[in-house]
Amino acid sequence: MLHRLLLFVLCLAYANAAIWRFSELVPQIRQAITQIFVTNLTVIDSAESNRHADEHGRLQHQLQRSNGKWDSSHPRHRLLTALHGFCRYKERNLAETKKWRDWYKQIPKRQRSIVESSVHYTRKLNTVDHLFETNERVAHAIVDNGLRFYNISQTELDEFTQENEREGRATDKTSVSQAMKHFVRDWSAEGLDERQEAFPCVLNALANVSRAAHHPMRVLVPGAGIGRLAHDISGLGGFEVTMNEWSAYMNLAYRYVSELSVPDGVVFHPYIDWWSHHATTTDLQRPVSFPDQLADPLSVLSVEGDFTTVFAAETGKYDVIVTLFFIDTARNLVSYLENIHRLLRPGGRWINLGPLLYGSAPFLQLSLDEIVALSERIGFKFEETEATCGEITVTGTTIRGKEVAYARNGRGLSKNAYEAQFWQAKKPE
Ligand SMILES: C[S@@+](CC[C@H](N)C(=O)[O-])C[C@H]1O[C@@H](n2cnc3c(N)ncnc32)[C@H](O)[C@@H]1O
Ligand SMILES: *[C@@H]1O[C@H](CO)[C@@H](O)[C@H](O)[C@H]1NC(C)=O
Ligand SMILES: *[C@@H]1O[C@H](CO)[C@@H](O)[C@H](O)[C@H]1NC(C)=O
Ligand SMILES: CC(=O)N[C@H]1CO[C@H](CO)[C@@H](O)[C@@H]1O
User: Fold this and answer.
1) Which residues line ligand 3 (CB under 6 A)?
2) In ligand 1, which atom is closest to the CA atom of 330?
3) Cis ω on the peptide bond leading into residue 291 (within 30° of 0)?
């Protein structure tokens, strides 16, 4: 066991001296390895690895069944539910194409034979069914990685899924599909255009923040999805980045992508589950590979849980909080804003880019001008923003609007996008 781990660490050391996947190592072994190999690695940030070890401990504790009431909102229950969802990826999708086959049979035989001879519709259905099997391998790899990462046994998952299925609880196909589509947005070359629309405003604002290697700026990215922005911020250097995500589907996808060690080593077909808006069937069936860039899981700390509660003990800890397509997910927007304000140190900054697409039964739905008024009342002072981030949206404010797509099929015939709002606000000293 130790031998395997040492080999593993050595390989990584050769590949990239900065990569230390401590999260997989128990502390004692980690210590031993640190002593053996630390002498010649360029980057051994022990504070950073302690941060990861501490958080891993917190996560394991939070996931214990005995921690709190065992119901569908228990973190372990939510994790098992998401794992069940990925496990049933193929079944749920093939049930859908089965329906499409049945609907196709509604067409009179004569017409069907025209369709068959001209466009081979049955073959298209068969091909897509086959491609769902490719995607299922990715879904299962996400499950395997998740079981290992969270220390959950296959037996426990099997028992959980059996009980769910006995009681007729269907898995959440949409959440599984959305999490997997984020591989495109965050970690594929195909997602680059979309990232180029959204990330530069945020990264440029951060690049300007003065910082020193021995005193990194603490950045928090709540609602981070599967983490590309958080990793790109870390890539700027001089930032200690924490990302946070509530969804167990997203967290499973993130844990998977951040453990991958071969660039573009995974291929899947993200568009086969929605047949609208395709110029060609080749487009619909096209493969996308990821990750376009490896994510060093140790360069960003991922804290799982609800942003409004999981950082209860971190008042004043962060220099910068970055919200990307996040604030409109709030049920209680006031709590989000107050929480951002509380977590920032005096003099700290809040950087936001995103739309105002309220969902999930929000307690209040504010327009942009109202968000400004409320944020100022809470104690934020809005700052100037770069003209490259769009036109001023509401006269008299410094907030700019910019067209930004989200999880869009770049070759699709539908071009949905948002007028995402960019701002920078300071919590005065
Ligand atoms: C629209 S997505 C944006 C994800 C990512 N920032 C991006 O741009 O790709 C919003 C994310 O916020 C997460 N989220 C919603 N409420 C949350 C909460 N209370 N705490 C943490 N994350 C939350 C959702 O699960 C979802 O992944
Ligand atoms: C993993 O889970 C098993 C059984 O629940 C437990 O006995 C073991 O201590 C856990 N291992 C770690 C590293 O947390
Ligand atoms: C960076 O800082 C300089 C000097 O303070 C300022 O002029 C410039 O507008 C800033 N750029 C951004 C992107 O905030
Ligand atoms: C302690 C030790 O082995 N240091 C070596 C680390 O690697 C550099 C460059 O490859 C060598 O110059 C050091 O001697």
Assistant:
1) 204-205, 208, 386
2) 16
3) yes
Amino acid, single-letter form, for residue 56: H
Q: Say if CB 128 and CB 97 are below 8 A apart.
A: yes
Ligand 4 binding pocket includes 40 (Cβ within 6 Å): yes
pLDDT surpassing 50 at residue 294? yes
**What 8-state DSSP symbol labels residue 376?**
H
- CATH number for the region 174-429 comes to 3.40.50.150
Q: Does residue 181 register a pLDDT over 90?
A: yes
Do 219 and 318 touch, CB atoms closer than 8 A?
Answer: yes
Looking at the chain, the whole-number percentage of residues with pLDDT higher than 90 is 86
Most informative mutation of 199, 204, 206, 208 for ligand 3 (most atoms within 8 A of CB): 208
Lowest mean pLDDT among 19-23, 223-227, 259-263: 19-23
- For 66-81, how does the pLDDT look when each residue is reduced to its tens digit (9 = 90+)? 999 999 999 999 999 9
DSSP tally for the chain: helices H, then strands E: 16, 11
User: In testing the pocket of ligand 1, which one of 247, 327, 351 has its CB within 8 Å of the most ligand atoms?
Assistant: 247
Three-state DSSP class for residue 222 = strand
What are the extents of the domains in the chain?
69-171, 174-429
Distance, first Cα to last Cα, the chain: 51
* Backbone CA torsion sign across 161, 310, 186, 333: positive
Question: pTM value?
Answer: 0.87
For residue 26, the one-letter residue type is V
DSSP structural state of residue 170: P
* pLDDT of 11 strictly over 90: no
